[in-house]
Each structure stands twice: as structure tokens, then as C-alpha cells.
Amino acid sequence: MSFSTLVSDLTYRDSTHSPRPSAPSHTASTNTARSHLSRAQSSYASTAATSVSISGSISSQLHGGYSHPLARQWQAERQLTKSMLIYPLFITDNPDECTPIPSLPGQKRLGINKLIPLLTPLIAKGLKSVILFGVPLAPTAKDALGTAADDPLGPVIAGLRLLRRAFPQLFLVADVCLCEYTSHGHCGILHDDGSLNNTLSVDRISDVALAYAEAGAHCVAPSDMNDGRIRAIKLKLIESGIAHRVVLMSYSAKFSGCLYGPFRDAAGSVPSFGDRRCYQLPPGGRGLARRAIRRDIEEGADIIMVKPASQYLDIISDAKDIGKDLPVAAYQVSGEYAMIHAAAKAGVFDLKTMAFESTEGILRAGASIVVSYFTPEFLEWLDT
Length: 384
Ligand code: PBG
Ligand code: ZN
What we know:
- This protein is 40% helix and 14% strand.
- The chain is of the alpha/beta class.
């Protein structure tokens, strides 16, 4: 007789003769005490949840495992910590600029002279990593080839050099794309018909990535979605003898959609015609995402990223499944941040609670790195 059969048998006898909700005791010496208890609990016994559960499987009892706050923390495979966070910075070519970005509450477009004052207190609170986006504002800064992307005096390269010197411990990620620097606002170089010229784009983007790595980026993160750029960047890093000290983080599964709206406002990278649906993934494209993740791993990515985050938890989980041996990053994008802010402002929910719930959901899905505009707030809210 199995244990559970024995338990249900005893429970059945208990409930018919001496109704007692729990103990499967069957020794004579406890019978007196049992029947005493039974009388006291007789009205409870017939409906007691424990009685019902015990007649089934012991594994039905879950509450005990998370009744204590620490036991609740132990349930998470990953705990949100400060070292998981990457904070996005928008750096302009006007050195003294410090302008709030209306679509991204709390975020600013910064000139190079404002970086150290902004970052000093954040680093003191435990900031470990930033990702740099260039926002060229000069009217001459944009052309069809995105020439300004690797301008040695441009905001990203100047920013990398400055931050490497000022904060040697800060991990610097450089977003690599052309859309902030092209006159048409697309993420690569175009054919005459307006479609992406993949060959020229990959050539150019891998040059830009190399320039950022040589300027001091610990990590280069191509977000353009051109085919084959991970391999091209890796090869150039190898040829230049710096592949051993540069992390290549691929925006592998980057889905098209409206959630990048506030970012494009902030970075001035709205396409002047068309959209990005021929190179960013279609929102239903789970299979394409899996193929892109597999491809980028084969091409030499060290980290794979999924973006946006909260809408694509299934893809984050796929990424962790396909890339068992790589860290998975998720980008909680501008639109996700702006939505949470707007709803909190309207009193729909509490900002801090929602920021935690959404970021913890992203970790649960499989990410261990989160790019988030909430980073300064998390540095306040978290202990470690
Ligand atoms: C540039 C880039 C974008 C984002 C990261 N890198 C914008 C885009 O692809 O349109 C989005 C970040 C955000 O929305 O917070 N290719
Ligand atoms: Zn782009």
C-alpha cells in the first residue's frame, strides 16, 4: 500500500468514525487523544482544506515554502541586483547641454561636460554600467552614410574616452547603429530604392563598432539588425587584436513596434520615410527570433539581447533556452518606461511596485542583464 493510499484510507476512516482533519496516526495509544480532538473539531473536519488535501497528495501544500520573506526571496532563480543593470545615456554634440527629454520623464540629453556630474553620485550608489547613445544635433552631422557615427570628436567616442579615464571601474557599452547619424534615419546604408544595402551597411557598422572598441568601450552592441554584422564585427575585433577584451552583445531579437517612439524622440532618429519593418522582427515572429538568436551565437556573440522586454517574455525564455551558455540581456525600452510612468502618474499603480514587478518578470523569464531607464531609481531602492 502506498503512503498516499494509506493516508486517504485513514482519512476516510477518520471522517466517518472520528472526524479528525489531519494526523494519519493509527496507533492505539493515540486514539483517546484523537477522539478528544475529534469532538472539538468535528464541525470543522468535514470542510477542512487540510483534510481534503491530505487525502490527495502531500505536494498540494505550498504556503509553508514561502511564508517567510526570506523564503520568498529564495523562490526566485535570479534576484535583481545593481550589477544586472545597464543605464542608457544620451550624449549630444553640444558639450554643455543638459536638456530634459519630454517623452522620457527624468531622463536628459547630456553634453560631454555634464557626464561626470551626473554619473558621480550614481556610481557612489552602485552604478556598474552604462550604454552610450550619440545624439548629434549639429545640422551638418547627418548624411547618407552616417559618417559622423565614428567621428573621433563625436559624442560617443569622446564620451568613451572621457568615461574610461574618469571612472575606470565603470563598464562601458556602446550602442552601435547608424540611425542617429543618417540623413534618412534608417539603421544602415540604403539602395536607391530605399531598402537596406546589407553589404555596405555591415561593412560600415563593423568599422563603427571597431572604432568604439578602440576608443575604450568594454562592450559593443550592434542594434541595427543587418544580417551578418556579428560575424563582421567579431572578425574586425580579431584582426585588430582586441577581440580578447571586448564583449560583443548582439541585439539579436529586436522587434519592430511603437515602443521605441520616445527613444527616437530623444535621439532624433525617426526615419524620414518608410519604417523599420524590413529589418526589425515582426511582433509575431517567434521562429525568426529563435533563428536570429541561433545565428548570432554562431557568429560570435558573447551576450544576446531581446528587445522590448516585457512584451516578449517568451522570447527571453527562448533565448535562455537556445543560449544556455550565454548571458541573456533584455532591454526595457523607452516605451515600456514611459508607459509605466504615465500610468503611475495617473494613479493607476505605484511606480516603484510596478518597476519591480516588471523587471522581476524579465529576470524570471531568463534575463540576467537588464538595460533600464529605471536604473537610477533601482540604485536607490536596492540594497545590493
Ligand atoms: C538604435 C536603437 C533604438 C533603440 C536602441 N538602439 C531605436 C530604434 O531601433 O528605433 C531603442 C531603445 C529604446 O526605445 O529605449 N537602433
Ligand atoms: Zn538604428
